[in-house]
Specification:
By secondary structure, the protein is mainly α. The protein is built from 15 helices and no strands. The protein folds into two domains: 163 residues, Tetracycline Repressor, domain 2, CATH 1.10.357; 127 residues, Up-down Bundle (Four Helix Bundle (Hemerythrin (Met), subunit A)), CATH 1.20.120. Helix 3 packs parallel to helix 7. The protein is globular.
Length: 292
């Protein structure tokens, strides 16, 4: 049983889905209270969280199915279940993935509203179709456009509160958009030989490690600067602390990587991006819960 749980945890990319779900909850947290009449209940927040997690899981499984040929050519992914034969990609998987997405989007529409459901769908569509099918194998811009997936999670959370959104929710969505490229480019730089062997045009493969490191640093500076902007719209010092501490650490690692663009420094920058996002999201959630 434990083996199957680990297998499906991997296939549905639950770890990534949980991060996207937390981003959606942050979208709720940064929305100003409109009125008690439109505040979300605990049940509605749970539905939003599970809908985003479900749609992300559907997109993650679809990515595994569609990329099994690429995965077979990369050391990092050659043991994935659709490559090893533990699972067979067939009609049942396509049906199950479609059903999971439909239930996730439909539930969000029924319990929340149409705009929240649309953003839940778009997050999965961008990652599963736009990034995986249309762009990943063709252009260096693949992960830049793919970064919209996380942005739509934030917008889904914000739209659940008020479909009109707010300035701080829109800024946070842009922050998620800017976060994805340096996060994933850092991983691609650490594993550039893998991506080169698979023929995937990730930025570090196309422009080389030195130029990629400089681009990542510039992107990180923009990201960290913008991540502080929601403070001007009323977010409290807990958000400020989370965004500031995480952003400073990410900048520190990005500067180190730019000065010494080695795979080891790239991997440290990748983990720093995870810390930065985690602290930012936790700061937003803690601020909403405490009013600080």
């Amino acid at each position: 049983m434990k083996t199957y749980a680990a297998l499906f945890y991997n296939v549905f990319k639950v770890r990534i889905g949980l991060a996207i779900m937390m981003s959606a909850l942050a979208g709720i947290a940064v929305m100003p209270a409109v009125s008690p009449a439109v505040s979300l209940s605990g049940w509605q927040i749970t539905v939003l969280a599970l809908s985003v997690l479900g749609s992300s899981a559907a997109a993650g499984a679809f990515n595994h199915v569609m990329e099994r040929d690429l995965d077979a050519r990369m050391k990092r992914t050659r043991n994935r279940p659709f490559v090893t034969g533990q699972l067979n990609a067939g009609p049942a998987w396509y049906f199950g993935i479609s059903a999971l997405l439909a239930v996730s989007v439909g539930t969000a529409a029924y319990v929340l509203n149409g705009m929240a459901a649309l953003y839940v769908f778009l997050g999965a569509f961008v990652y599963g179709v736009v990034y995986t099918v249309w762009l990943k194998r063709k252009t260096v811009w693949n992960i830049v456009v793919g970064g919209l997936s996380g942005s739509f999670a934030v917008l889904a959370g914000a739209a659940a509160v008020d479909p009109a959104l707010s300035a701080q929710a829109l800024v946070l969505a842009v922050v998620l958009f800017l976060w994805t490229p340096p996060h994933f480019w850092s991983l691609a730089a650490a594993l550039s030989e893998d991506y080169a062997c698979a023929g995937v045009p990730m930025l570090p493969v196309v422009v080389g490690p030195k130029k990629a490191a400089r681009i990542i640093l510039i992107n990180t500076v923009l990201l960290v600067g913008l991540s502080m902007a929601p403070v001007a719209y009323g977010l409290g010092w807990l958000y400020w602390a989370g965004a500031g501490i995480g952003g400073t650490y990410f900048l520190y690692r990005s500067l180190q990587y730019a000065a010494d663009p080695t795979p080891a420094k790239a991997m440290k920058n990748f983990f720093a991006s995870l810390i930065q996002l985690s602290l930012l999201v936790l700061g937003a959630l803690a601020g909403a819960l405490t009013g600080i």
